[in-house]
Amino acid sequence: MLLMDERIDGLVRERMLVAFYRYKGHTHAMANIDEVCKLFRSTGYNPHALKKPPNYPEDYLARYRIPREAIKMIIGRLRSDDIYHQAQAYPLPEHRSTALATQASMLYVILYFAPEILHREQATMREIVDKHFSDNWIISWYLGFTVDLSVAWAGYKSAQLALNNTLSPTNIKEMHDTHVEKMAAILKNLQQLLTEVLCFKCR
User: Fold this and answer.
1) DSSP structure class, residue 81
2) Cβ(6)–Cβ(47) below 8 Å
């Protein structure tokens, strides 16, 4: 739903539904047209605008009701477990956000189905941020689509408070210095490997 709202304007969606309805007419295949129209009607969101509509996207996603217990169970599993068993491929502690990146993007989206967590449950949000977003607050939530959590969560009190430690200037500087140091070592090793390959080909 978020991807559709990002790529197809609400007015265009509404016109497509009307055109399809007029083409098909009153057939058995159109039995759920009212629910479909409710789900896909315009939200007022413009991906190029600086400001989002009020309570977006939680009001938009609330058009499709999912049982609260199911939402809580999914969030609990995503926030506490390594569901894709990526820790085996990324054993170092500093690689944790990379290992959990896939489920972190899922967690970002599904939290909008439970906006009370973003607004009021500070302990839960602190746990989520510390585990999934401690060194990465610009995430990919779908192929080629990224979001800056400092902007997306600006209107949610608990989420914003949880991000404060991650976004502190001291923490950002430490991460910057660490990455610069590692990048220098990687480039040095890479240059050595390229030289060795070149020499081997010359033989």
Assistant:
1) S
2) yes
Token code pair at residue 158: 């608990």
Which tokens belong to 197?
Answer: 């390959």
Backbone angles phi, psi at 192, to 5 degrees: -65, -45
Residue with tokens 């060795």: 196
Q: How many CB atoms lie within 10 A of CB 23?
A: 7
CB 146 within 8 A of CB 138: yes
For residue 183, give the 3-state DSSP assignment: helix
- Both structure tokens of 24: 């098909």
Give tens-digit pLDDT for 20-48. Answer: 888 887 776 677 888 888 999 999 999 88
Q: Alpha helices, DSSP H only, in the chain?
A: 2-7, 10-24, 33-40, 58-61, 68-80, 96-99, 101-110, 115-120, 122-132, 149-152, 157-163, 169-202
pLDDT (average), residues 84-92: 89
Q: How far apart are CA 104 and CA 131, in angstroms?
A: 9
Provide the pLDDT for residue 29.
66
- Taking the CB of residue 100, how many other CB atoms lie within 10 A of it? 24
CA 125 to chain centroid, in Å, comes to 15
Q: What is the pLDDT of residues 163-179, one digit of tens each?
A: 998 899 998 899 889 98
